[in-house]
Structures are given as C-alpha cells and as structure tokens.
Specification:
- The complex is a heterodimer.
- Chain A is α/β, with parallel strands linked by helices.
- Chain A has a single domain (about 5-115), classed as 3-Layer(aba) Sandwich (Rossmann fold), CATH 3.40.50.
- Chain A has four helices and five strands.
- Chain A has helices at about 10-25, 35-45, 60-70, 105-115, and strands at about 5, 25-30, 50, 75-80, 95-100.
- In chain A, helix 2 (about 35-45) packs parallel to helix 3.
- The mean pLDDT of chain A is about 90.
- In chain B, the strands form three sheets. Chain B has a five-stranded antiparallel β-sheet, sandwiched between helices. In chain B, strands 7-9-10-12-11 form a five-stranded mixed β-sheet, covered by helices on one side. Chain B has a two-stranded antiparallel ribbon with strand order 6-8.
- In chain B, a hairpin with a 2-residue loop joins strand 9 and strand 10 (about 325-330).
- In chain B, helix 8 packs across helix 9.
- The chains are: A alpha/beta, B alpha+beta.
- Chains A and B meet through helix 1 and strand 5 of A and helix 6, helix 7 and helix 13 of B.
Chain lengths: ~120, ~425
C-alpha cells in the first residue's frame, strides 16, 4: 500500500489528514516534528511526504533540504498556511506547494498527481 | 531820558514798531515751522500706514481684523485670495457669513474667547473651506483695545497647517496599520490551524451523511462559514506578510483585460456595464501581474458592488510622463466624506460581509510597486479611483534576479526555476 508521511505540529491537523488520506486508500504515518519525520524516513521510507513549514525546532524548509540530501527521489509536498514561502528558493526543491485549507481537495489531487508522475502508485 | 536827536514819544513809537515787526516775523517763522512739522507728522503717519499695509498684505498667512460683531474691518491679500475675492469686497461683511455661510459667529472661533477675556487665544487644527480647496488651519486671535482697556477688535491670524495635518493623519493611519495589523496577524496565525481541523472534519461529516439527511443543512452552514473565515484570514495574511512583489515585465492593459474576464463570469449583471478605454502601445513595466490583478479586481469589484441599481464602470489607462495612470470611475451613489477618510484603513468596511481589507491590500500592493492610489467622490455623483504606477524598465540586474531569485542560491539551473514556478502558480 502506498505510504504517506504527514508532518505537522498540530495534533488535530495530523488527525484530520490521517483520517482523510486513509479514506483515499493510503497508509498514513504522522510525525509532529522535522526530527521525528527524518527518523521515520530512516526507519522505513514512505512513498511521499506532506510537510508543514512552520515547525518547532528544525523547520520544514531545512527538513526538506535534509531529505533531498539523503533521498533525492523521495517526493515532498510542502503544505503551509502561508503562500509566502513559495518565494523561498529552497521551496522549489519540493514537488509541489499547497496552501493549507480546510478543503483538502487540492492537497489530495496534488498527492495523486505527484505519485503518478513519480510512478509510485 | 533822551536818545540823541529824537524826542521821547518818537522813540517809544519806533520801539513799538520794531517789536511789532519782530513779533510778526517770529510768529510767521513759528507758524511755518509748525506747518512743516505737521506736514512731516502727516507724512510719517502715511508712511507707517503704508508700511503696516505692506506687512499686512505681505504676510502669506491669513490676517483679518474683526469688530465685536465679527464684521471684517480689514483682511489681507493672502486670505482674500484664498476666498477668491478682493480685500475691499470683504470689508464690512460678517466673517462667519464668508467662512461658515451661517447666521451666527462660528462656534469654534477663538475670537469669542478674546472678546470675553481680553486675552490672546488659539484654536488649533480647524478645517476651513475656501473657493478652491479646503485647508487645515491654526487660528490665533489677539485683542485690540481702546484707551479704556475695552477690547474693541480682534486680530485673527490664520496659519495654514494643511501639510502638517496631512502628515499627522498619515502617521495615524500607519500606526493603525501596524498596531492593529500586527495583532491581527498573530490572531490570524493562531486561528488558522484550528479552523482547518474544524472545517476538515465538518466536510467529512457532511460527505458521510445520506444526501437526504436534514443535518446536512447544518454541516453546509459550518463549511460555508469556515470558507468565509479562511478567506478573511488569507487576505489578512496577504496584508501582513511582507507581500514582496515578484517583478516581471507586465502589460497593464492585459492585466485589466484579465480582470474584466474574471468579472464577466460573476458580478456583472445586465444593468451593470464595464467599459474600457485602454491606450494603445502602453509601455511594458515591471510588476507582479497577480498582485496587480488583485489590486484592480478589488477596486473594480467595489465599484460594481456599489451600484446596486446598475450603472457603468469605466476603466481607462494612459501614459502620463513616466507613469501609467489607470482610472476607474463609476456612476454609483458616491462615498460620503466621513467614509472617504477611512477608505484605505484595514478592517474598515461599510458592507455587512466585507472584511475591510480589500482596499487596504490594494493600496499596499500599489505602494509596493512605487505608485499611489487616490479616490475622489461627490455623494450622488459617482466615485473615481486613480492608480499611478511609475514605469519601471527592466534592467540586466533585474533580469538576473528574475532567473536566480534574490535569495542567493545561484547554482540551481534556471529552467528548473521556471518549471517549478509554473507548477506553483497552477
């Protein structure tokens, strides 16, 4: 089963994403910090990472850089409440950038699109 | 006693005659002197009067002397010119008739206090309208007293402080922007995440319910309101995040045409028309097309919404010197003057469902492009907004910035940037 790792420091957002993505037929793992996410990726890499940017400790952009250094082939979708990080050069390394919203339609569509492009489904 | 050769009576007569002659001469001399003196005094008076008049008229601030009935005794040229009249036409008129078009002395005038107390008085920051424009003034009054010490006239000194008042007003607005804005940005950030969880799970519930479940109406309301809150927060964050425009060469006319296209799907009705007069061959300038689109969308959208009974919104673009000027004019009900001053203040709105951020965002965008925006309105006679955008020509440095970004990571290939950029904008 395709595995998605959701990284977000808000517990209820992790719950929502987990519930929604499971309905989409994915296996879902969650991490509440960048550090935890990197550990999980080491333990057993997912097929795609949904990564929040504003995190306690290491932020999402640094986390993205680390992932790119270690596993260039792992698709990452940045998911932030702010659209301004789009202008951050580093964010271009991600496969997509989705602004957070209560409506997950766009996020789900992007996950599907990226996985298809990367041949992971 | 006898003088040689003359009899005493003859001597007496001669003496009298000599004395008389002397008296006449001295008298004549004295009279001539007094006349000369008076003449000089007269001349001195005229001279100092002329000097005073010259000073009076030379002062560029307004000076008016009024009597206790507030009738103009004298008014200087500067003040008369502000009223669009000659000084001589104003003498004798009550000043309140000239300034306030009223029947009694204007309540705010410091001359009331000067007449009552015999002392100088000041009322700062009054607004006075003239024949051509309004101005902000500080009004000082000084007493003119007669011999018995009674105040019989007052000198009004009217100092134009329009520029200072404008600056203060701008400062207040900036303070409002930063103070409220900062707080609101923090609140917005704190609210955003919980709202996503609320809305997300509400959507799940909504979709899980049978289509004929009456509770779907309730979840629909939750979703609708969450969407509205999200929209407000998004606008708020746009306002407060630095909102740095990504400058590329843009065609302002094309942006206006895009806006028209966007509006033609929704807001425009059969009674509301949107007409354009776009100048051909407008020079390309550097700008953020998306942001400018948003800015014009806000203004034109507002104009359309202001005309509930229909009307025409006309959009014109033209080059004026080194600027591109875009004017948006509607023939709606116009904007009352008390609303006018708050037009660009964040969170100020006259609409029930408005966030009060549209025009604040618009102004921020235009200013980030080095331009400015002004509004003019006559209640009952429509409103026009004028956006001035300085023409910025692309430079080699800017082209470099466009390819490599300004964050310094220059080794990423340009094509990857372009590709990512496109994807992000999709």
């Amino acid at each position: 089963m395709t595995k998605v790792l959701v990284v977000d420091d808000e517990k209820n957002i992790r719950r929502l994403y987990e519930s929604e993505l499971k309905r989409e037929g994915y296996e879902v793992e969650t991490a509440e910090s960048a550090e935890e996410a990197l550990e999980r990726i080491e333990d057993g890499p997912p097929d795609l990472v949904v990564l929040d940017i504003r995190l306690e400790g290491m932020d999402g952009i640094d986390c993205l850089r680390t992932i790119m250094e270690r596993r260039r082939d792992l698709p990452v979708i940045l998911n932030s409440a702010y659209s301004t990080y789009k202008q951050d050069f580093a964010s271009w390394m991600a496969d997509a950038y989705v602004v957070k919203s209560a409506d997950l339609t766009e996020l789900k569509a992007k996950i599907r699109e990226v996985l298809e492009k990367r041949g992971r489904v | 006693m006898a003088i040689a050769g003359l009899e005493p009576p003859a001597v007496l007569l001669a003496s009298v005659l000599v004395a008389l002659a002397l008296g006449l001469v001295v008298g004549w001399l004295l009279a001539r002197d007094r006349a000369r003196c008076e003449d000089r005094v007269q001349q001195d008076i005229v001279k100092s009067k002329q000097q005073l008049q010259a000073i009076f008229d030379g002062i560029t601030d307004g000076l008016i002397i009024v009597d206790t009935e507030f009738r103009v005794v004298a008014i200087n040229k500067a003040e008369a010119a502000f009223l669009g009249r000659e000084p001589k036409d104003l003498v004798g008129l009550p000043c309140y008739e000239v300034y306030c078009r009223g029947d009694v002395a204007c309540g705010a005038c410091p001359a009331h206090s000067t007449f009552a107390t015999g002392k100088a008085a000041l009322v700062p920051q009054l607004e006075l309208s003239g024949s051509f424009h309004r101005r902000g003034v500080d009004v000082y009054t000084f007493p003119v007293k007669d011999r018995s010490g009674r105040t019989v006239q007052a000198i009004q000194y009217i100092k134009d402080v329009t520029d200072r008042m404008k600056l203060q007003q701008q400062l207040r607005q900036v303070e409002q922007m930063t103070g409220i804005g900062q707080m609101a940005a923090n609140v917005a950030h704190e609210i955003r995440n919980p709202l996503i969880a609320v809305g997300g799970f509400a959507r799940q519930l909504h979709e899980d319910m049978e289509p004929d479940d009456p509770r779907r109406e309730h979840t629909r309301v939750i979703l609708e309101e969450v969407t509205r809150l999200e929209q407000i927060l998004r606008e708020q964050l746009t306002l407060e995040r630095h909102l740095q425009p990504v400058m590329r060469p843009v065609d302002v006319n094309q942006i206006l045409r895009d806006v028209r296209k966007l509006l033609s799907h929704g807001l425009l009705s059969s009674q509301t028309q949107l007409v354009g007069d776009l100048q051909d061959g407008l020079p390309v300038t550097m700008g953020d097309a998306n942001q400018l689109k948003q800015a014009f969308l806000n203004i034109i959208g507002n104009a359309i919404q202001s005309m509930e009974d229909g009307g025409t919104v006309s959009v014109t673009s033209a080059q004026r010197g080194d600027d591109i000027i875009v004017t948006i004019r509607d023939d709606g009900p116009g904007i009352p003057s008390d609303v006018m001053s708050k037009l660009f203040v964040p969170f100020f709105t006259t609409r029930k469902s408005g966030s009060g951020l549209g025009l604040a965002v618009t102004r921020r965008i235009v200013e980030n492009h080095g331009g400015d925006i002004t509004a003019e309105s006559q209640p009952g006679d429509g409103t026009s907004f004028t956006v001035r955008l300085p023409i910025i020509r692309s430079t080699p440095e800017m082209a470099h910035e466009r390819i490599y970004g300004d964050t310094g990571g220059g080794d990423e290939p340009a094509d990857r940037h372009e590709q990512t950029e496109r994807r992000v904008e999709e």
